[in-house]
Amino acid sequence: MRQSIFVVAKRPATGHTKTRLCPPLTGAQAAALYECFLRDTLDTMRQVPGVRRSIAYLADDGSQEEEARRYFHALASDMALTPQRGHDLGERLHHLLSDALNSGVQQAVVVDSDSPTLPPSFLAQAFAVLDGPFDVVLGPCDDGGYYLIGLKQPQPRLLCEVKMSTATVLTDTLALAAEMQLRVGLLPVWYDVDTVAELHRLHAELTTTGALVAQHTRAFLPSIGLTEDIRHASIAHYSSAE
User: Fold this and answer.
1) Ordered alpha helix ranges (H), the chain
2) How far is CA 191 from the centre of its chain?
3) Side-chain half-sphere CA neighbours of 175 within 13 A
4) pLDDT per residue as tens digits for the range 8-44
5) How far is CA 138 from the centre of its chain?
6) Other CB atoms within 10 A of residue 109 CB
7) Span 3-192 CATH architecture
8) Number of helices followed by number of strands (H, E) in the chain
9) Sorting pLDDT into bands at 50, 70 and 90, what band is 70?
10) How far is the C-alpha of 1 from the C-alpha of 53, rounded, in Å?
11) Which of 195, 147, 214, 165 lies closest to 24, judged by CA?
12) Confidence (pTM)
């Protein structure tokens, strides 16, 4: 296939996954919630036709890599599995996209696993952007990062020279792309769920969307005890911010 889409993922582990949600969540709840996010992201990827779908998983050593591979194969046997390699996120994204493009893929896109309500149309739009004159496609997050990046030629500087996991990842990436004279297409802004405030935002969003959106996350959220008061406050907060 000429187009590939990857989701970057870690095997959920109590005490090591989504720790910024603890408290109020327990470590076990946070890990289970992340698995729901991942399942919903995989469902979103399945709705994009005509592309090769892969899970890019992270493991620290050989034994953990085998355990992770078994976990992800059981989770999504229809997805290809690719171990991430590199010392930091930027280097891992560079290797992931460059390996795909050097193997004959014409367009490679990677999406995060923290945006369970991301519309499938955004993923399809990413490939449409790369079909045009753009060298890079980015999906901006409203926290200053991005939920998606796609390329049609390897761009190691764009990934390895930008400090990841900061509030300026998007602006730094755009500035470097401009310096490199790369044409960047932007997708609609979305959000990922890393903090308790974002979890409340997600809960509020799911009260206003159809039942088919983020089905795994939607089914799990009642078990973690987000109260009606919090839900209504979240809806009011994010409605007033729009």
Assistant:
1) 27-46, 62-75, 89-102, 120-131, 156-160, 169-179, 196-206, 215-220, 228-241
2) 10
3) 8
4) 999 999 999 999 999 999 999 999 999 999 999 999 9
5) 12
6) 27
7) Alpha-Beta Complex (3.90)
8) 9, 7
9) very high
10) 10
11) 195
12) 0.91
